[in-house]
Amino acid sequence: QVRLVESGGGLVQAGGSLRLSCAASGGTFSRYAMGWFRQAPGKEREFAAAISWRGGSTSYADSVKGRFTISRDNAKNTVYLQMNSLKSEDTAVYYCAADRRRPVVPSTTGSDYEYWGQGTQVTVSS
Fold this sequence. Notes:
seven-stranded mixed β-sheet, mainly beta, single chain, globular, four-stranded antiparallel β-sheet
């Protein structure tokens, strides 16, 4: 059983930056593709970014492309989401997720991910 724990969320002004971290335990982290998803109040969960098992392939939602960067450190069993130029519409709970079945080409579909963290709140004030 893989356990994922997010951290790094908080309150930031528009235009600011945050870096989210997701620490994994209980599995072979380097075999999983990892994704970040987010859910704003009253909205459905949506894809933000994903990265393949070795970090060679990444994918981003159009809404975050050019502002967010996903990366991973397999030695530390951790995936990161660097968020720059934050906007009020980025306000959401951010979740990391792990997918063992598609490690090379990371999925953008939430239902493809088997393990989820508890989420971390990001609030961007305008």
